[in-house]
């Protein structure tokens, strides 16, 4: 049997008789194997609009099943892949009435995923006579974390434990009141989001920052019961990355570092302090930002050392040059001193900045090149923007001290600041409630999940923001739950409505999937701001 443990004993025989059994052998464990073939697929619903296909999980044979692949075809037609993912059901609506269809499914685990080419399909066919259908999707069973794995502790569980402790200690450190009835109104113009918020924050102390924000967008009727706050944090964090502000700029991998063109003037340092205050306030309010920092930036926040290897992420050209210096003799090739050229922010004149004492008069040689490489790498990664970094951390520390963040890894800090960017329709569906004359098996609901699953990432984020006010999935699920409501009072030519404070979307009773797809697309592409309805 695959992935099974065995022990062996032996005895022998001659013409006189049998010996006794030997002592048992060491334990021997067989390798994992591909999963068993799934049982025959079956349909729970066949009607003029769709067919709902299901399958049961087979035995995994020692390696956790990571994916199911289902494909189907019209009898006499060509096989087409319909679904690939962790669910155990699928609603097929790419069909035409009056035809017969066949379906097959295979399971994949970490063992047979490595096979090239993949093993042959085992076909299980279900002949279904349909009349008419379009698109839909249904979530099935959800994989359990850690099954069949080698990890002793689920990293997700570990992170959640750290995060729970962090938020508890953050409240205690700030002596936060249990009843947060004191609000601070933040009235801003959406078109001047950065400037208006900066002016307000420049007058705030810790006492003000501890109050619960109530966002008021000038010219909009929306009332903030949570949705506007989520939208404000995300939009504000994105405004910090606009190049004209010279706070953060994107490295080659798209992640953010301190803007290399920023100057340590009082006005600019105030912007960096403001950026830190925004991050600290977001952590205190348990809100997400859109500020994916470089590993170097996370290391600097955590107080970790930054080395020459980290330089590659932000300045690959300089990294290659310094690596070349370390691998080659630089005699009569490199004519540099232990200094860099900078521009004075006041006089705008170029001047030499020594990397060490008397560095401008110290030549780089084969003997001391290692020290030069180290100092220049440190200058590029953080010493050149040290004042900006200190101002940023000063703002952050108003609500969040350094020691509370140091328990997290870089990957965990990224998740803590920015949340999950992957939008899994199956995960969202697992925590969804329904209101009105609909349920999880209603046609309009199944169409909605199929639409979300098939969307491009950008549109998924737009839809999530339309419904919840944020384009990120909360780490602990939606509170209140994601809500799909029957728009029985709406006509089929209307756009869907959303109530972000309640994570609610109201869907009219569209007659066709195509119509719903068009209406949802118009809604998410042309909605900015919040109004009463």
TrEMBL record:
Its EC number is 2.3.2.26. Pathway: Protein modification; protein ubiquitination. InterPro entries: E3_ubiq-protein_ligase (IPR050409), FN3_dom (IPR003961), FN3_sf (IPR036116), HECT_dom (IPR000569), Hect_E3_ubiquitin_ligase (IPR035983), Ig-like_fold (IPR013783). Residues 205-533 form the HECT domain. Pfam families: HECT. It catalyses: S-ubiquitinyl-[E2 ubiquitin-conjugating enzyme]-L-cysteine + [acceptor protein]-L-lysine = [E2 ubiquitin-conjugating enzyme]-L-cysteine + N(6)-ubiquitinyl-[acceptor protein]-L-lysine. Keywords: Transferase, Ubl conjugation pathway. GO terms for cellular component: cytoplasm. Residues 34-131 form the Fibronectin type-III domain. GO terms for biological process: protein polyubiquitination; ubiquitin-dependent protein catabolic process. The active site is at 501 (glycyl thioester intermediate). GO terms for molecular function: ubiquitin protein ligase activity. This is HECT-type E3 ubiquitin transferase. The lineage of its organism: Eukaryota, Sar, Stramenopiles, Ochrophyta, Bolidophyceae.
